[in-house]
Amino acid sequence: MIAAIDGYEANASVRVGIGRYAFEIIAQIAARQSQADRLFDDVRVYVPGKVAAHMPKETQHFHYREIRPRQLWTWVGFPLALAREKPTPDVVFSPTHYVPRFTRIPRVMAIMDVSYLSYPELFRAQDLHKLVHWTAYSVRHAAKIITISVFSKRAIIDAYHVPSDRVVVAYPALPDTVLIRAMGKSEKTTALPEKYILSVGTLQPRKNFSRLIEAMAHISDPDIELLIVGKKGWLYDEILGAPKKFGVENRVRFLDFVPDEALPSLYTHAKCFVLPSLYEGFGLPVLEAMAHGTPVVVSSGSSLPEIAGDAGIYVDPSDVSSIIDGINRALTESAADRKARIQQGLQRVKEFTWEGAAAKVMDVLEDVGKQGRNA
Hints:
- It is a single chain.
- The protein is α/β, with parallel strands linked by helices.
- It folds into 2 domains: 194 residues, Glycogen Phosphorylase B (Rossmann fold, 3-Layer(aba) Sandwich), CATH 3.40.50; 174 residues, Glycogen Phosphorylase B (Rossmann fold, 3-Layer(aba) Sandwich).
- The protein contains 14 helices and 13 strands.
- The protein has a 7-stranded parallel β-sheet with strand order 3-2-1-4-5-6-7, sandwiched between helices.
- It is globular and about 65 Å long.
């Protein structure tokens, strides 16, 4: 059996969200393909242009196809490459919201979340059009759908009226490199404030940073600062203007994108991590914070309770007073309660592995490929 994988997002130089998920799944599949118990005769990963240096190395049963054009990838580049393949792949996996057009090969897709349907006003018009219409097309033509949480699975079923058995949850996890760094001792850099709260996420409305910044004006400790790590996404002007609006310009710092090697110090020395998102398909920064022994304050809705479990302090993301109370609770817990919460977080992290996620994806690909052969 031959599996084809869309490597567009995984091959990107900066990988967040869907790109990170795609890369980790492909890396695990590559590792499995080098073993005696591999599932496929060959796995072919299709990328626009050159294969990036960070991608897994080719082996006897794992190969790349460097394809042009980059533009119109799901409409032209990828489908044309599939049409030219001999022998034809048995199954195609697209770890994005969009399956390749114009192919009869059975397709499997991944959907991170459907926030664009719940909060359309939080997206740019051109992005929203693609997400709404291209995803709907892809769902109609996909044999199976992979998603990243039970919350997202339910949302997909409700939005697209697909049977439950067509949607499979494969939870994300932390890369081994992050776990290794989390186990090491991370010295506090002189650039960090004495006391701070940390939040990590792309600057966009659904991350709810504006309410978090408003809450900072009412935190019981007036000397604590808020550090927000994340590159600019979209509709971020209100977020950037919030510190001045709420009179906390000297207590809020936007650090933009921070390389992975700098994150351990930020997580380890934070008094708490806060993610009061309106909507999260998963939320890897919550796992990162718990892995570094940092208490987490997160929204009580969407997927975040699935991640944090008993380790989380939960807040209503639409209520600033609830966010204030959650942060104050994290800052004022007794030493014993804080230690217990940290231990719960460390145990929680162990429940999410990329090996387990990839195993689920590979089982789905194998099943769909076999069904396609027998059709």
